[in-house]
């Protein structure tokens, strides 16, 4: 069988065997195959620069692997000044106490300067990381074809395992944040 026929056959079989993707309203299921880590899987490690430089003007790197031993809330936001990013970052900031003692970081592919100004305007006290080229967004399955990220939340436990995953949600849905806080509670 030629390469072209194999690809078509694989695409047909993939489409026929992935009803959950069709149910999500994905027009092309192959575009949603790489979805990032699911709950119970290890979170992909990464290192990204913070949008706020240190006192010498150098980007401050954040590495997920350095947080082992503590829980992490990973927040993907599309762009600065969008309603969803504004609402999500303000809500996470307001709920820091209920998310403690986890480390909170936001990730965006928007320009570092725009996100730094945006975070400062909102009074965000947790790091916002610059994901130039959507490298981390792709690993977590939140990247979009327009160069930005879907709104997404991940709770990662102290062992580096994803305990909560929500990609594409209404930023004002209080249940999402309540579920996130519950996922961060220590397991017995």
Characterization of the model:
This protein is 33% helix and 16% strand. With 188 residues, it is α/β, with parallel strands linked by helices. It has two domains: 33 residues, no CATH class; 149 residues, Glutaredoxin, CATH 3.40.30. The longest helix has 14 residues. The N and C termini lie far apart (53 Å). The N terminus is likely disordered.
**General form:** globular
Considering DSSP H and I runs of 4 or more, what fraction of the residues is helical? Answer: 25-40%
- By CATH reckoning, the class of the largest domain would read Alpha Beta
Number of domains: 2
CATH-scheme architecture of the largest domain? 3-Layer(aba) Sandwich
Main-sheet strand order equals 5-4-3-6-7
User: According to CATH, what is the topology of the largest domain?
Assistant: Glutaredoxin
For the sheet with most strands, the description reads: 5 strands, mixed
Cα-based radius of gyration, to the nearest Å: 18 Å
List the helices and strands and how they pair.
Layout: H1 3-16, H2 19-23, E1 47-49, E2 61-63, E3 72-76, H3 83-94, H4 96-99, E4 103-108, H5 112-122, E5 128-130, H6 135-140, E6 152-156, E7 162-167, H7 174-183
Parallel strand pairs: 3-4, 4-5
Antiparallel strand pairs: 1-2, 3-6, 6-7
Summarize the structure.
This protein is of the alpha/beta class. The protein folds into two domains: 1-33, no CATH class; 35-183, Glutaredoxin (3-Layer(aba) Sandwich).
Name the features.
alpha/beta; Glutaredoxin; 33% helix; 16% strand; disordered N terminus; 188 residues
